[in-house]
Every structure is written in C-alpha cells, then in structure tokens.
# Entry
Amino acid sequence: MQQSFHTIILSLMRIHFTGHGVVSCLGLDVPSTLSALEHGRSGIVQVEEWLSLDGLDSHVAGMVSNFDNRFIPRKTRRTMSKMSEMLCKACDEALDDAGLSRDDLNKRRVMVIVGSTTGSSASFESSFERFHRTGSARGQLSTTMFKTMNHSVALNLASYLGFKGSVLSPSSACSTGAQAILLGAQFIEAGLCDIAICGGADECHVATAIAFDTAQAASSQNNNSPELASRPFDRSRDGVVVAEGAAITILESESSQKGRDAEAKGILLGWAQSCDGGEVAHSTKRSMADNMRVAIAKAGLSPEDIGYVNAHATSTKLGDQNEAEAVFDVFGSNVAISSIKGNMGHCFAPCGTIEAIATLNMLNKGTYLPTKNLLDLDPIMPDMHYLNSVTMLETDAAMSNNFAMGGMNVSLILGAKE
# Structure
C-alpha cells in the first residue's frame, strides 16, 4: 500500500521542458535544424580530406559548417575544443528560450548535466603529432588537458556560464544526451534541484570514422552521394554515418516553471535506463524491450497510449533490426516509427537530446516526420507503420529511444505541451 501511494504521488509530478538549443549539421540553432528536418534536407557531406586516407572506406559525415566561435571571450575559449564551443552556443539558445539569465542560474536550484563520448580527439591528435614529430615534450599547450578530459564539455560550459552549482558529466556514447535528460528528471523528482540543464556534444574526427569502418559498421556505399548514405531500416543500409553537434534542453519542475511563468515546450512523462549486461557492441532485443516497458510503466501509461516512436536506428544492419523487433514486441504493428538519422547521421552524445527536441516538436504540431532515405523497407523488419512521408497522427505521447555501445539503454516518454 505504501509503494502504491508513493507511485501515485510521483505520477502527479510534472517535469516540463522549458528551453531548447541545438547546433547540428542541419543548422546552427533549433529553428534551422527543425526546418531542415521538416523539409527533408540532409546535412551529410563527403569529407574531402578523408578521400586519400589508405584503408578508410567511409568518406561521409555530418559536419557543422559556418560555426563562428567568437561569441566566446578569447580567454575562456582557450581551453575549449569545437565541441565545448558548440555546447556553449546551444546553451545560450536554450537559456534564452527558457527566459533564464546567467544570474538566475546561481540564484536558483540548478544542476548542469552535460557530457560527451570522449574528450576532444582533435586536441589529442594535435598534441601527439607534435610529440612524435619533435621527439620532445617541449612545445605542448598547457590548455590541451582541459580540452581532452572526459568532462571537458561540462567544465568548459560551467566556466563559460560562471556557474557555481552542481555539475555532472555522463558519458555513455550514443545515449549520453538522453541519459542527461533522465538524470535531470531524477534529480528534480528527488527534490534536489528545480532546474536541470541537460545535453551533450561531440565533434567529428576521422578517428571515429576509422573505428566504425574497422568494425565494418560505417557507411561506404554512397560516398559519392552522401545525402543517401544514412538510411535507417532500408534494405540497402550499410552502416553509421558519423556526425557532430551539440544540444541542450532545460528541464524544470512544475512549481518552478509556473513560478517563473515560463512557457512549457512539453512534458517528460516517464523514463528508464538499463544496461544489457551481456553484449558490449549493442543491446539485445530483450533488454531494449524491457527498458521500453519500464519507461511506459513509469509514465503510468500503456503501450496503446503511445502513438509514435522516434527510433535510435543508426542505419546498421543488426542494430536497426534488433531495435525494430524490440519495438514490435512492445507495441505491436500499429505504432508509427521513424528516425531522423537519415537526415543528420549519428552525432553520438547529443543525438538523444536533439531527437527528444525533434520529437516534442512533432508532438506539439501533430505532424510526424518520415525516415529519410527509407526507399525500400528491409523485408526482415517486423510489420509496423514505418513513416515514409509526413504523417498526421493523433497522440499525446511519444517515445524517444537511444541504445548505445556497451548495451546502454535509455527510453524517454514525452508528452505534448498542455
């Protein structure tokens, strides 16, 4: 009886999204990124510098172009790599969207929860290249350490904001951004903060492409037509298209949101995270399905209440199949499903945050985006409503999934703004 009462109390708590910020290969802010998605545009390009690399078969990526870092003071910028700079840009947009100032952050009960897959690979490369070229430890930059730490994006964002509160830096590759949202919700629910600034960032480096290419998991069949390279669920999919970007979303307790009279962009209804505990490369169908069920139960909903699933779907042969079968196991054949990675590739740490923002936008508009490049559905996929055109749906709840290497599962249940 006590547990039941506790569950009822928690189900009455509302956690609202009040601000969003994005830097992506589709655009340098939320409006341009969402507009590109809605118009079916691609941010994938051929990377010319990779063409001559012996042994690298994948030459496509989602690169952030025309990014200007001069909004960051030079002294502060010295310790930043591109991913920290992009995260600062996304955070500025999210704070402005939420109607929060930097002064507000140190006056209110706020947590910053942001992470990346690794420290800056470009900074590592530069440091080691100098060492091997000269055979000397002399000439190294004292700022390299601050660019290559695992919590580099978190420490640099806090420095940029002048933030003096609690900072966490999750690192779970493809599920980092979604995990940041989940952690923010848990801290708000526990009464430890009222506002959580959540997200992630990663920069695209050839080392990432090499890693996936070596594992035979990187796309290489469409190097000359990069806009066709990322094709989740399609019969011709041949692997991940690496990308970069940054994203921030701001979570807020209902009392804080209403007390500030801030506009809510949507509701976080439920969440779950788990580890597969077996596979190190990917999650199994069973662990993905189990995680989704826990998130649905946390939201106090049933599968029938959720009309749309934004899939992790990275365009790999096995990953897409396992995920589709897990979604089918939970929802059956009626649920609508799509992935935005056909437009923007896989930007790793921020992808879960960007996908949550895109899913909330779809929920609030009632129009759901198709999977770009899904031209020929793989016949091994289970029977579901795979969106291949912009579709109107009547649903108040959607799920956004992220399943990372190491079997790191995160499922978020999102609700439309009230």
